[in-house]
């Protein structure tokens, strides 16, 4: 049944690590860090190589029951080794390059994008809106992700970006001020928690007054 992927049970016992480089959210290069030789930069070559190496390690199989546009449920068995590899790398890099709220909105748009594409509305105006919004969100998704492939698993083992929003000093609960260019004190979280708890306390009081109904 499967044409592109090896069964994870029969996949190589030795993992391989690849590095995928992105610019504006688009993969621009893939390197095999294990063999130290294979490098692809052409868009089609990148995708074909992702299919080949991920499929070799049993990545990308899925067996689901889905809903067709007409309302009928159907069973679908797919294999998308290259897409799975690229998606995992892209999502990981987004995690360090994209603002929290932008990321949250993108996750919602991703579901709507998938629905419209699946139902055949690629050229609909709402799809144009989503695609332009996604392109805007990818401006700072630049860097690379190192991924280990092993028996059906896609394991991120490293990432780097010059446009990362991650700041170790700012994230630390031990460094006052958050480092250079920041005015942040972990103790400020006490007031933040108290403010946010007002709504919860009000709701709890109402529930208690109503006998928890």
From TrEMBL:
Transmembrane helix listed as a keyword: no
Protein EC: 6.3.4.5
Pathway: Amino-acid biosynthesis; L-arginine biosynthesis; L-arginine from L-ornithine and carbamoyl phosphate: step 2/3
Signal sequence region: none
One family name in Pfam for this protein: Arginosuc_syn_C
Keyword Cell cycle: no
Enzyme class: ligase
GO molecular function: argininosuccinate synthase activity; ATP binding
Keywords, in A-Z order: Amino-acid biosynthesis, Arginine biosynthesis, ATP-binding, Ligase, Nucleotide-binding
GO BP: argininosuccinate metabolic process; L-arginine biosynthetic process; urea cycle
Gene3D superfamilies: Argininosuccinate synthetase, chain A, domain 2, Single helix bin
Any one annotated GO CC term: cytoplasm
Domain Arginosuccinate synthase C-terminal span(s) in chain numbering: 1-203
Subunit structure of this chain's protein: Homotetramer.
PANTHER family linked to this entry: ARGININOSUCCINATE SYNTHASE (PTHR11587:SF2)
Protein name per the record: argininosuccinate synthase
Provenance organism: Corethron hystrix
């Amino acid at each position: 049944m499967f044409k592109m992927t090896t069964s994870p049970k029969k996949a190589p016992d030795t993992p391989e690590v690849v590095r995928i480089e992105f610019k504006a959210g688009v993969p621009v290069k893939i390197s095999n860090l294990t063999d130290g030789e294979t490098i692809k930069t052409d868009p089609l070559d990148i995708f074909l190589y992702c299919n080949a190496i991920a499929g070799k390690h049993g990545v990308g199989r899925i067996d689901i029951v889905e809903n067709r546009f007409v309302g009928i449920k159907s069973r679908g068995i797919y294999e998308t080794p290259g897409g799975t590899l690229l998606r995992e790398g892209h999502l990981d890099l987004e995690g360090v390059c994209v603002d929290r709220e932008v990321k949250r909105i993108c996750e919602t748009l991703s579901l709507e994008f998938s629905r419209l594409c699946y139902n055949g509305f690629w050229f609909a105006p709402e799809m144009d809106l989503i695609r332009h919004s996604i392109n805007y969100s990818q401006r700072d998704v630049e860097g690379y992700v190192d991924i280990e492939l092993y028996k059906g698993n896609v394991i991120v083992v490293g990432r780097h970006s010059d446009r990362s929003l991650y700041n170790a000093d700012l994230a630390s609960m031990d460094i006052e001020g958050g480092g250079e260019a920041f005015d942040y004190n972990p103790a400020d979280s006490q007031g933040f928690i108290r403010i946010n708890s007002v709504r919860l306390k009000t709701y709890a009081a109402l529930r208690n007054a109503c006998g928890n109904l």
